[in-house]
Each structure stands twice: as structure tokens, then as C-alpha cells.
Specification:
By secondary structure, this protein is an alpha+beta fold. The protein folds into 2 domains: about 5-100, no CATH class; about 100-190. About 40% of the residues lie in helices and about 25% in strands. The chain contains 8 helices and 10 strands. It has helices at about 80-85, 100-110, 115-125, 125-140, 145-150, 155-165, 170-180, 185-190; strands at about 5-10, 20-25, 25-30, 40-45, 45-50, 55, 60, 65-70, 75, 95-100. Helix 5 (about 145-150) packs antiparallel against helix 6. The protein is elongated and about 60 Å long. The termini are far apart. One of its GO terms (cellular component) is intraciliary transport particle A. Keywords: Repeat, WD repeat. One of its GO terms (biological process) is protein localization to cilium.
Length: about 190
């Protein structure tokens, strides 16, 4: 559209649209997710919206310019502030925003059991979510679920690592191998 309008043909009724059309006013920046065609982010006035299938998540107050959108994470830069203070070279002008699915997965993975997280990820599949589940499963010693998660995110090395863990008969050795996997070599040494 012209003058800050975004129009796209929609499939079905989308929130805030008429006749199955998607329309937004005062849009000044937009990025599609590079790894999920259902996701895009846009800047509308001083708010950033993330859309999944044309349905918006809660907006985030921001006037940053969108740089990239992949792995359920948006990178943006506060270009106006950077232009005012170019000598600062500060990383604080580069912002990261996570999608709702990524934030909710992190919250669910902090719970004692992983069943809810696994169900949520199955309903909202993405390689990054499966990878997060696999890593938490390794740390908690749930190797069958870790293997399933590695399969879903296509991590062949992770699958082989879990198979190797299952061949070890000692939980301490398994723990040491997991610590090594995450680069915690001091912890691994203590366990061996």
C-alpha cells in the first residue's frame, strides 16, 4: 500500500480486517521470518507487532528498525539514537525480541515436568523450540524425549549423542558427558 498502509490478501477472517483482507495503517517497517512463512513483524507508529497467520501477538513499545527475523527472534536497531551518538558504538542500540512461542516455551521448560512443554512445542513446532527441549531434557536426564526432540529439529549429531549416552551404564558418566556437551568441562571432570 501507499502512505504507510500494508494490505495483503488473507485466508479467512483476520483480526481487524474486513472480508478476509489484512490491512494495517501507519506501517513504516516490516520483516518476514526467514524460516517460517507464517511469521512476520511490523512496526506501526511506536509499536512492534509480531504476526502468526495474520493474528497479532501483544504489541511491544519500540521505535527500532527491524534488521532480521529468524529462529523466532527479531533483531532491531535504535537507528535514531545511533545516528545521534555514532561514536558510542554501543551494543545497547541493538535489541532482540522473542516471539510469544519462544517466551512461553522457556517458561514451560522451567517447570519440574516437561510434558506440558513437549505438548506446546508439538502444537507450535519450530526447530529452535525442539532444540531448547532437547537441551533441557539432556540436563534433566530424560534421554528418550531428548532424542525425540533432536529428531524433530533435524540434529543428527544430537541424536547420535543421545544414543551414545544410552549405552553408558553409569548415571555419573552420563552426567559428565552431558556437562561436556554443554562445555562445562570443570563439572564433567568432577563427575568422572
Amino acid at each position: 500500500g501507499s502512505g504507510g498502509e500494508v494490505k495483503a490478501p488473507g485466508s479467512g477472517e483476520a483480526e481487524g480486517s474486513a472480508g478476509g483482507r489484512f490491512e494495517r495503517k501507519d506501517v513504516w517497517d516490516m520483516r518476514w521470518s526467514t524460516d517460517n512463512p507464517e511469521l512476520f513483524a511490523l512496526m506501526e507508529k511506536t509499536r512492534m507487532y509480531i504476526f502468526r497467520n495474520l493474528v497479532p501477538e501483544e504489541p511491544v513499545l519500540s521505535s527500532a528498525y527491524l534488521c532480521s527475523f529468524s529462529d523466532l527472534e527479531i533483531r532491531a536497531v535504535l537507528l535514531d539514537q545511533l545516528m545521534k551518538e555514532p561514536d558510542e558504538r554501543s551494543k545497547e542500540y541493538v535489541l532482540k525480541f522473542e516471539t510469544k512461542a519462544l517466551r512461553e516455551t522457556r517458561e514451560l521448560l522451567e517447570r519440574p515436568t516437561l510434558g506440558e512443554a513437549s505438548s506446546f512445542i508439538e502444537a507450535n513446532p519450530h526447530p529452535r523450540l525442539w532444540r531448547l527441549l532437547a537441551e533441557v531434557c539432556l540436563q534433566k536426564g530424560d534421554f528418550p524425549l531428548a532424542e525425540k526432540a533432536f529428531v524433530h529439529c533435524g540434529d543428527y549429531c544430537g541424536i547420535q549423542f543421545v544414543k551414545r549416552l544410552l549405552l553408558l551404564d553409569d548415571p555419573k558418566k552420563q552426567g559428565a558427558e552431558v556437562a561436556t556437551y554443554f562445555g562445562n568441562f570443570d563439572d564433567a571432570e568432577k563427575l568422572y
